[in-house]
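Mods, move this if it's the wrong board.
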Amino acid sequence: RIADYYMSVKQKKALPAEKSIVVLEVKPWDSDTDLDAMEAMIRGIEMDGLVWSKVAKRIPLGYGIERLDIYAVVENDKVSVEGLIETIKGFEDYVQSVDEGAFVKL
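Not the wrong board. Structure tokens:
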């Protein structure tokens, strides 16, 4: 009986949500693109299970163009990284391409 009780209690405990850290590499069209405005638009995306990190890095690519690396924590069951990338690509005036730079499960 004790083993049955232990198993029933163990099954009732909610498991913590699986989370991952994602680094998105966002490339602008040219060196005239306002990266601050682009970052603000990206951070404006709100989804259940998505938390933007305060960290964003500008990586020089060449010819005065910089790539924006932006970090986020996502709950794997709630946020599709591919869907998030497609949403960012929707900012066509600013964004040329988006790549998944890193994906680390926590």
